[in-house]
Amino acid sequence: MPTFFTMMSNRHICNPSRTTPKLPLIKSLFLLAFMVTQSCAHHNNVRPGENGLHRVVVRAADQEAGEQEALKQARYFCKKHGNKQAVVVNEGHRYTGDMPEEDYKKIKKGAKVAQVVGGTVAVFGGEKESNLGKVVGLGGVAADVATGKGYTVEMQFRCQEF
What we know:
The protein is an alpha+beta fold and about 160 residues long.
């Protein structure tokens, strides 16, 4: 089976009866999600503080992702403000979603399963299975988006010389 790039390089511009190959829906969604996450500012949640004590507050789908994002932003902030290293002083997280936390976790887990199963069936299934996989995968994406970012992580840090 030819790849997208192979098809693009073999197409004939002079033959209007040929159609331009299209990326499958799931791949397009992943590409869009990647572009959106890469276009965000690197330390837009950092709040500079007095006496060199800074704070970053992020919302995330889970605690671990929130902690990683907060630390990433703190490191970037310190690097851009004197090429220093971020030293965490205090860190905490809390569930701030609109539904009970256990329900939130179950929906998030189900959404991830639907995305993985739907994507797998869409790629490896026949025509009917592929369409069903796309619907299941999109349902998982919709559930994930609808539940939002249920955790808030707050971190205090200082920027220090290496």
